[in-house]
């Protein structure tokens, strides 16, 4: 597969060149002297952790914001500070991570929105449909032009988003974390589409933090960290380790098992001892044939059964959207199960409410800390009460002294910064906010911990801290149910791994026997467990 | 009770609702809560009176009424769109403001606390039963025209997009704020026209003459599920109930207070989803983007 | 003073200060359009309100009702709900208080009669508040519209009851209530002679203190505010959101209803159709300017009451309608400044992760 590289720099001028870009939001410097150079006809990956500044840089490219300093050139033209309309007119198309589609309008209406065909003063819908169908055929992106967007699948909706940009004549496509919500077969489809677009002369910028995607698909990689551009590499001549190092700035334990695929060693991070089957009482957490029905009468959780022993980390891997979220919420008591039972340390909590389950020994680190885990306008001290406010109440009145003491203790032992209990949670960084949640959920006695995406949006230093805490809890004989979209994280921490696919466990196996390839196939659904 | 006189009286009552409800529909479909219809109507009535009085021409009155509604519409728009003030609060404030402003200037211009002097309406022949009033025809056409605009024009498509998913609209270069400004301005003008009809029909402006009609229009918008034609039908329904009560007054079938309640009770019922759910545009009331 | 405290005060005070400035500017324009001198008129306004005992008494009287409705609205907002029905809740409360007063024998001592009437008032408002509460929790019906619609229904109903059954001929009010009268202030402080101010003021202040305690010192208050700030997190924290909504809106109605005693027991000693006179809607302004805090509500109530009474004092020079215009302007100005201030402060406070 040929692709123009930067060797013929004299003849080829960059499709995109950004230099010295500065952008601040109040005290936060999202971009500091960042740069980017994308050659025409290549697939360019923009890589970096959360908060590295990639999205901001792309927003400036797309005309959604203006840089405080620096220069932006597109195809040799200085276009610094242009607007979205300018960018669209120049052929830049952005596909956002969160789809920008109006659910109540049809596919065709969404695609032509803003550039609607007109006939004698009226909106010519029939023409719009025809044009969409034509474009769809040309590019191989199949969509049903007349259907309401609210009825589409995620993959289809993404195709609509891409068609939107192509409809406007986009020749430079920017995709922001496009695979975050796709299943593996949909990812493969997307790759085919992108390669096809490249062949027809398009230029593509992929924003992602997934190293494997980067290696698979891109020609060139730009790495960002803390608002700066660290390095620019040719994919063919670099390695994941080199990229990871640049991303994080130090030798990092690439959350893999025992020096495998990424060639970087890591400590053996899970217990090799056989799991103790306690005879004193039943498992710490027992879930039996749990069923949840979703909004369209489909089974979102389709008969899940498993048990977790004390001193065990049970990991659930799987592409997001296969029922993991609902499963955790059902166990936590935030969602009602259709049928099935849940037992915590032997107590049946199937019909208990959230507080009762907490009392029975259940702790929950929710996957969305801004929505569920914290009240951003409450102080750290008040957030540390959430879910346990009864314990700090005497005759209906809050015990202010004990609350303050509790805050002091937790802030110290979990190293929450800044260490001021009256600060609103809103003013903490992502990592520290997560630490507040974890301090609350792990800082007192519990039997079972539900940890859902515990390190999402958290900086590397805090990630290590959190992983340590999880391992320590396991050593202290707690049971942990870990759900993570990062397969590596699951493999690094779990003793047993399950793959969730379409609401069921496709497979459960000891982590020692699992490999990414095998698990991947269960995640796609191409491999099914043979009937025992 | 004669069906023809029932119809004419019903229309006479319905026209202000039709104007105001149409204004409410366009604003709310664009995502802006429309509780200020009462205030727009009252202002329109007053400015129309001023215009008609000083010029002697009802058409000047109409123009002034539209401008008055537009002015208050713009105040609402600037406060809620540019400054992101809470839309419910602003709506209520506009209503209070309209009462205060109209009273203040009523005193200033006509030295009265209760009503203006008599003004000329449209020349009306008794035999025409009100059908020679151009505003009546405008009122009847408002809803179909609005439906056409909303569902068949580019502007209407954009209004609907903006009211459901403003971020998506913005990402394709649609000026969301601008679309909303136009929608709210239209709502001010349309509701103002409702007030114009009232003032010209009664040949004067009286203190607080709208008497809650703007809220009946709000009820019609919701009961009509934010669709122009359905909202118009709701207006006719409410007007019919009122007419029925007036014409049956002697029979004491139902006290006037209970007839008054009908639109409001129906709306509450609609909101409770007893007869199918009333689901508003998704971005209604939210200006945080 | 810590930086955080200073920020809190800034965010709280800025909008009301804006309100005051805007009111002054607008007032200037209106006064001048009448050919009067603003300085003179403002002086007259202050003299007529805080400058003499009778005027001050009237201010206190009006502020009392506004305190109740302001507390009611602010309580709802703290739970994330918008109660626009304070007007009918106030009326219903006054009505039930009147019924109770009329039903009780005049021989019953005030110490027993008044509390009974108070309970009835709270009950009246609470029942009216429970309707939108129930509809919101059970059907998801938005309380803004329900309360607006219900206002009309309840007021029409009360009007019908009075007009057809309970009124003294040639009027629209009930017969005089002898049991459960609340003494006027001028019984204790002769200077207030003639003004409507009565001991309900104390009840209002106590209610404000009680609401403060409830919101910030009790577990229920913690949960209520949590629901208002982030219902999903409150649910996660084991709080029954629907239950909180129901109780908050019902209590909000009850507080507004309680305010009815000011007029019905403390001033006229009968229930009159329309006595609420817009105090329910103004309660929204009071809550807004008072930043939904009990102390702020009391101060804002005094502000609006001063405006209202001041309008009467200057009537010879500028129509009192000017005050109504000012009210509307102030509300819009405050409503506009609140998001701006919050946004500006939030920008400044944002942490080091983009």
- The string of secondary-structure elements of chain B, in order, is HHHHHHHHHHH
Backbone shape of chain B: globular
Q: What is the number of beta strands of chain C? A: 0
Structural class of chain B: mainly alpha
* Count of discrete domains of chain B: 1
Which assembly state applies to the chains in this document?
A: heterotrimer
Question: What is the overall silhouette of chain C?
Answer: globular
Summarize the structure.
The complex is a heterotrimer of chains A (532), B (289) and C (354). Chain B is mainly α and 289 residues long.
List keywords for this structure.
heterotrimer; A: 532 residues; alpha/beta; six-stranded mixed sheet; 17 helices; disordered N terminus; C: mainly alpha; ABC transporter involved in vitamin B12 uptake, BtuC
Fold and architecture overview:
The complex is a heterotrimer of chains A (532), B (289) and C (354). Chain A has 532 residues and is α/β, with parallel strands linked by helices. Chain A has 17 helices and 24 strands. In chain A, helix 14 (430-442) packs parallel to helix 15 (460-475). The two termini of chain A are 44 Å apart. Chain B is built from eleven helices and no strands. The longest helix of chain B is centred in the first third of the chain and has 27 residues, at 3-29. Chain B has one domain (3-118, 132-272): ABC transporter involved in vitamin B12 uptake, BtuC (Orthogonal Bundle), CATH 1.10.3470. The model of chain B has no long low-confidence stretch (mean pLDDT 91). With 289 residues, chain B is mainly α. Chain B is globular, with a radius of gyration of 19 Å. In chain B, 71% of the residues lie in helices and 0% in strands. Chain C has 354 residues and is mainly α. Chain C has one domain (64-336): ABC transporter involved in vitamin B12 uptake, BtuC (Orthogonal Bundle), CATH 1.10.3470. Helix content of chain C is 73%, strand content 0%. Chain C is globular, with a radius of gyration of 21 Å. The model of chain C has no long low-confidence stretch (mean pLDDT 89). Chains B and C meet through helix 4, helix 9 and helix 11 of B and helix 5, helix 6, helix 12 and helix 14 of C.
